[in-house]
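Q: Give me the 3D complex with magnesium ion.
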Amino acid sequence: MFKKCVGCGAILQAENENKPGFVPMLTEEMKICKRCFRMMHYNELPKIVATNEEYEAVIDAVVKKNALFIYIVDIFSFKSTFHKMMIERLRNKDVILVANKIDLLPKSTNLAKVVQWISKECDRFQLKALAIGVASAKTADFMDDLLATIDMARKHRDVYFVGCANVGKSSIINALLKRTTTRTEDVIATSLIPGTTLNEIRIPYFEDNSMLIDTPGLINTSDILNQILPKSFKSILPNKEVKPKTYQITDGNSIFLGGLAVLSFSTKKPLSVTVYTSNSLYLHRTKTSRVEELFTSQLGGILIPPTKEEIVNLSYESKDIQITGKKDIWFSGFGFVQVSGTAKITIRYIKNTEVYITDAILG
Ligand SMILES: Nc1nc2c(ncn2[C@@H]2O[C@H](COP(=O)(O)OP(=O)(O)OP(=O)(O)O)[C@@H](O)[C@H]2O)c(=O)[nH]1
Ligand SMILES: [Mg+2]
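A: Here is the predicted complex, encoded as structure tokens.
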């Protein structure tokens, strides 16, 4: 019987260092591959060792199971992790939808309204969830609620944690294990690089021998993380409560979100614009007439990320959108901008990433 790495689920092997599950020597005691060991003990960022096709094959097999599925999305990247390909796979299954990383939202957020908003998105995309909740693996908030909901819906079946890469599936399982055992350290490897978990990780958890099962995340190819280098991830991915920044915008104003995107506003009346991105992303408000000059002279300079090294492989595209009322403009993987009022907005953003418009998630 092949032995699996407890950190990432890959089958342990001693043949090829560049393939998943590598250990220098295959012995009885070996429980964890070299990649996970270095991730968990030296905080090293993992190497990407599997292809999208390999992840998808595991996910395809997983969704065929007669089980309860906990579909985890990242509240801060809602629109890119509430993903068409995941939704299609989970339609007509027993699903509990959990929006993780709520610690990133401002403390004043009305979470009941957030759940209502998510519920509308589920209706819009015809995903019938048995329950919808929020959670934070980081602060362990709402873990008891999650466990209680799982208990109600499980009906003696295994419980699979599924979703896009990086939403915190493994982190939530680690948090659940800490809740019900004396364990204080993580069991499963987690990291800010998408694609950390490589295969199913089965953990006996329930009295009837049913399991909690972690799975690899679906890699979202239109996510910003596919366009920039891992060393820039920390300035894009927030790791603590986001402090929103509000601007009163008049006609002919623009806002740069680092060098990742720029929004240029045409409006008859002043607009209120609030940016929810990582606190370390540099925001710059300017006149639209200066945008071209700044793009040419400051991209990779004050307007980072992307860094000069990353710009070489990037191109940008633009689109015009019309906004009335209170809307959010979501950028794949790095946050959202709430706009209140009526305006035409020209958005320049990195090619092959996505921009989505929704009703505002936060009041
Ligand atoms: N702020 C915050 N960060 C979180 C939370 N949960 C997970 N993270 C971080 O999100 C990143 C991804 O977490 P993982 O648990 O590895 O995510 P995953 O869904 O298992 O990812 P894959 O295995 O790649 O599919 C890590 O940097 C975690 O520390 C949370 O509740 N709040
Ligand atoms: Mg994982």
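A quick observation: The chain has two domains: 50-220, 232-359.
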